[in-house]
Specification:
Radius of gyration: 15 Å
Mean pLDDT: 87
Order of helices and strands: HHHH
Helix content: over 70%
Number of helices: 4
Strand content: under 5%
Distance between the termini: 19 Å
Structural class: mainly alpha
Shape: elongated
Amino acid sequence: MQNVNRLQDQIEIVIGLWLCISPWVLGYSGPLQVAGWSAILVGIGVLLFSFEDLALPSEIEEWVELVLGLALMASPWVWNYSDNMPATLNALISGFLVTGVAFWALKHLGFPGIGSEQNRPKPH
C-alpha cells in the first residue's frame, strides 16, 4: 500500500508542476491574470503537500489536496475568468485530476466512508 501512496504523491507532483508552468504554456500568464495566479498558487500548494506527504505520510495532505482541487475547479467562476477557455479547461481538468488522485489516496488509506471496508486497517 505504501508504494501506491508514493505513486499518488508522484502523480500529484507532476500535476503541481504542470499547474505552475501552464499559464505560460497555454498563454494566460499576464501579470494581472487571476487565472494564472490561481493555477500557480494551487500548483505550489499541491507540490508542497505532495512532497510533505512523501516525507511524513498522513491523510491530512490528501484532504488539503482534495480541497485545493475542488477550489481550482470552482475558480473560473469565483474569480470571473470563465470566458478564458484555455484557463477554464485547465482549471477544470487539473482540478479534477488533483481531486481524483487525492480521493484515490484516501480510499487506499482506508479512510472511513471512502472506498471499501476491506482496505480499512483492522483494530487490534
